[in-house]
Design a protein that fits this description.
By secondary structure, this protein is an alpha/beta fold. It has 2 domains: 58-287 and 392-465, Alpha-Beta Barrel (TIM Barrel), CATH 3.20.20.140; 304-389, no CATH class. The chain contains 18 helices and 21 strands. The longest helix is centred in the first third of the chain and has 17 residues, at 164-180.
Length: 534
């Protein structure tokens, strides 16, 4: 018997939640071919994993790396966490379909969120997937079709219901994306133009994907002030009415008036599951979120996308109206905490000194009201400005991480420290999410057992995605495998210094090919676009 890669003396945590056990594991032809005590075999590579854990490669259930792989195909920030598959297209943002506005038009609108130096030339899922695979990527990608893209594609970018023809067009484009291999449909209901949709519109689009096996609805819900429970109830209603599974994105409590009341939110999921709805959620282990700065502007300002929004900000009358409206708060009435909102990226050179500074600091430097700072930066940077906001508490994070129906998703991008994000200060979740779970929440704080944490990173998201041959270590499955040291795995990325790789991942295999060997990136690009049902 010959085995290409033999990993000996491993502590196997297989992704099912079952207890760990000691065994050898053999990889050959891109698959797991043997697990047990393996002797007398010919090997090309043999690894002694004494004291190390071997697990399925981690599946990042909530990512935004839709186009970042064109600039950083190695995906250093994610593969050094042990991630072998990312789920992209979340929060309504996908780089297709382009419909009537064409790929360049879609890039002009969604490109402010999905940043890349590459010009978009595809029009649909197939074109995007072929571009990804021809470019090469170190990890696998499962892609969701986004509501914002659908609305832009049919010309329904404003604060109004779509016409019957526009709605039919969106349904057709959503179904086409699923037929081509997209795994689901996503909304971003505090983000334009997705936030302009009512529940009936979302139900209609979910009904278009409902006939396809394993397709699901992922929602960045209406997390306005005081709406943390109703947001979940709307998501559950959509799932029930349309007959589709629901994935509630990055569950958290960002309204300080409701800290400590996470059980009210998970009760909605539990009741939905009891009634027969397949509803789960994902979570990242940080007390700060991140977004485009423009998302804090009044809804009417964002109407129509970046171009119309900038035109309003450059009109003195409408700018004054926006300034006055911002006195009411943001996201439906949340109190502004200027000292807890930090600039993470800025497009131009003129304002680079503000990266890493709080809006309060910038207000003092510029001698302007913080509301005017927000309006001015969005205006001056043509909307290319992002912010990290510290708005959560640790006990809530631990509650959601430990919740039985939650899985892990970073809400970050796969990037490298010398790529197009190198001058920015992105959220540390880009680099540290999974080692943070394993190093702090498992090893140091004992919030989760190792087996349960791995299940939330592998087996559970594989179930959501319908990946029957990934996410679990068993003979015959695809060899997406991570080997890490449970005693040393840890994150290093911070808000002040985010471009720091995590430690502890010794080896990483994607589709059986080694991407990390002895802690070093091999610069192999074996990743694939994982189409629905495959």
């Amino acid at each position: 018997m010959a085995i290409e890669t033999l990993i000996r003396n491993a502590t196997i945590v297989d992704g099912t939640g079952a207890d760990r056990y000691l065994a050898d594991i053999g990889l050959e032809g891109g698959k797991i071919v043997a697990i047990g005590r393996i002797s007398e075999v010919e090997t090309v590579t043999e690894i002694d994993a004494t004291g190390l854990v071997v697990a399925p490669g981690f599946i990042d259930m909530h990512s935004h790396s839709d186009v970042s792989m064109f600039d950083d195909p190695g995906g250093d920030s994610k593969v050094f966490q042990g991630v072998t598959t990312e789920v992209t297209g979340n929060c309504s943002y996908s780089p297709f379909p382009s419909g009537g506005i064409g790929p360049r038009g879609l890039q002009e609108t969604i490109g402010v969120v999905l940043r890349t130096d590459k010009q978009w030339e595809w029009t649909d899922f197939d074109g995007w997937a072929n571009s990804v695979e021809s470019n090469g990527v170190s990890y696998n990608v499962a892609q969701i079709v986004g509501h914002a893209a659908l609305r832009f594609a049919v010309g329904a970018s404003g604060d109004r219901p779509p016409s019957p023809d526009e709605l039919t067009g969106m349904q057709k484009l959503a179904a086409e994306a699923i037929e081509q291999g997209a795994v689901g449909f996503s909304t971003g209901l505090t983000l334009g133009p997705s936030m302009y949709a009512d529940t009936d519109e979302i139900v209609s689009l979910c009904e278009a994907i409902a006939p396809y096996g394993n397709a699901f609805y992922a929602t960045h819900a209406r997390v306005w002030a005081g709406n943390h429970v109703k947001a979940l109830e709307e998501a559950a209603e959509i799932g029930r009415r349309a007959g589709v599974p629901v994935e509630y994105s990055h569950i958290a409590i960002g309204d300080s008036r409701y800290y400590g009341r996470g059980e009210e939110m998970t009760d909605v999921i539990d009741r939905a599951r009891t009634s027969g709805l397949d509803m789960t959620c994902d979570v990242y282990p940080y007390t700060a979120g991140a977004s485009g700065l423009f998302q804090s502007l009044p809804m009417w300002v964002q109407d129509g996308g970046t171009g119309p929004m900038l035109a309003r900000l450059r009109n003195p009358v409408e700018r004054k109206r926006a300034f006055d409206d911002m006195a009411k708060g943001h996201f439906g009435g949340l109190e502004w905490h200027w000292d807890k909102m930090f600039i993470m990226n800025i497009g131009s050179d003129q304002n680079q000194d503000f990266v890493g500074r709080s809006l309060q600091e910038i207000s003092e430097i510029r001698g302007e009201d913080p509301r005017e700072v927000v309006l001015a930066l969005v205006d001056e940077e043509d909307n290319d400005v992002g912010v990290v906001g510290h708005n959560r508490i640790e006990s809530d994070v631990e509650f959601f991480v430990n919740y039985e129906n939650s899985m892990i998703g970073s809400d970050g991008f796969a990037i490298s420290s010398d790529g197009i994000w190198s001058d920015d200060k992105p959220h540390p979740r880009f680099y540290g999410c999974y080692p943070l779970i394993l190093g702090r929440y498992v090893r140091e704080k004992n919030v989760l057992s190792l087996e349960r944490a791995i299940y939330k990173m592998t087996g559970l998201p594989a179930e959501r995605l319908g990946l029957s041959d990934r996410g679990v270590l068993t003979e015959g499955n695809i060899a997406d495998v991570v080997v890490f040291d449970p005693k040393t795995i840890i994150d290093h990325a911070t808000y002040e210094s985010p471009h720091q790789l995590s430690d502890g991942v010794r080896h990483l295999y994607v589709n059986g090919e080694c991407v990390i060997r002895d802690g070093l990136h091999t610069r192999a690009y074996p990743g694939q676009v994982l189409r629905r049902g495959k």
